[in-house]
Amino acid sequence: MRPLPRRTCRGGRRGTRRGVVYLRCAAGFTLVEVLVAALLAILVCGSAVALLGLHASLARALQSELGAGSACAWALEVALRDVQAAGNDPARIGVAALRSGSREALEIDADLDGDGRLDTASMERLALYWGAASGGRVLRRLGAQSVGFASPVAAGGFVLRYRGVDGAELGAGAGGALASSDLARVRRVDVEIAVRTDDATREVRLRSSAAIRARLPVRGVP
Fold first, then answer.
1. Listed residue (112, 129, 7, 132) closest to 75, CA to CA
2. What is the pLDDT of residues 121-168, one digit of tens each?
């Protein structure tokens, strides 16, 4: 029967305890060292997980803000285009550009196809207004059909201001509603829209102005 191979330990040192001679190896780790290493590994992994969670949260917030900004810019472009087309009247049938106007609502007429007839059931009679339904949104009414084109928009997130030929604001009193005598004096409309992010903690607010083209002076015509 072959004897078992003897274990050797290079670089160790000899010691005695209670009369027993033993050889302490220099290689390897003690239990305390293993526990400390495990603790450090747990701390590093925990920090990495926390950092990834923070990064994901920031990415979601940025994506939500970019989405709100894109929706706000698109809605503002639509509203400004509608304002510019107000009062279009190539057949000279006497189309009034603005039927009514207030801080949060605007009603527009325009003979868009130039047939000399105002079709009130189509885009030729259009309204922009804010509604509180579904968390607040800006709606666009085409004839009898209303379609939301900016949401969520809180109260005060859709503001309209009306300016005359000299640039002065019209209807500044009484909640911003225009009197009948002021409707024909409007030459420019300021539009302001604020779209909230998905978590409703922030909002993207944009504003711009559009002139009513049908009321712009024509060069060479008194």
1. 129
2. 888 999 999 999 878 999 999 888 899 999 899 999 999 999 999 989
Return d(Cα 103, Cα 87) in angstroms, integer. Answer: 20
Q: Which two tokens stand for residue 36?
A: 């400390």
- For 31, the enclosing helix (H) or strand (E) is helix 31-85
- β-sheet with 188-196: strand ranges across: 169-170, 158-163, 188-196, 203-211
C-alpha span between 64 and 80 (Å, rounded): 24
Say how far apart CA 150 and CA 10 lie, in whole Å: 77
Q: Are strands 20-24 and 98-101 parallel, antiparallel or unpaired?
A: unpaired
Written as one letter, the residue type at 112 is: L
Domain boundaries, the chain: 70-215
Write out 144-203 in H/E/C secondary structure: CEEEEEECCCCCCCEEEEEECCCCCEECCCHHHCCCHHHHCCCCEEEEEEEEECCCCCCE
CA–CA separation, 74 and 60 (whole Å): 21
Distances (CA, A) of 73 to 5, 51, 104, 114, 127: 81, 33, 18, 29, 19
Task: In whole angstroms, give the CA distance from residue 160 to residue 190.
Answer: 6
Residue 172 has a pLDDT of 59
Q: Across all residues in the chain, what is the average pLDDT?
A: 83
Cα(189)–Cα(118) distance, rounded to whole angstroms? 22
Alpha carbon distance 15, 21 (integer Å):
6
Dihedral-angle region of residue 134 (phi above 0 means left; psi in -120 to 50 means alpha; beta otherwise): left
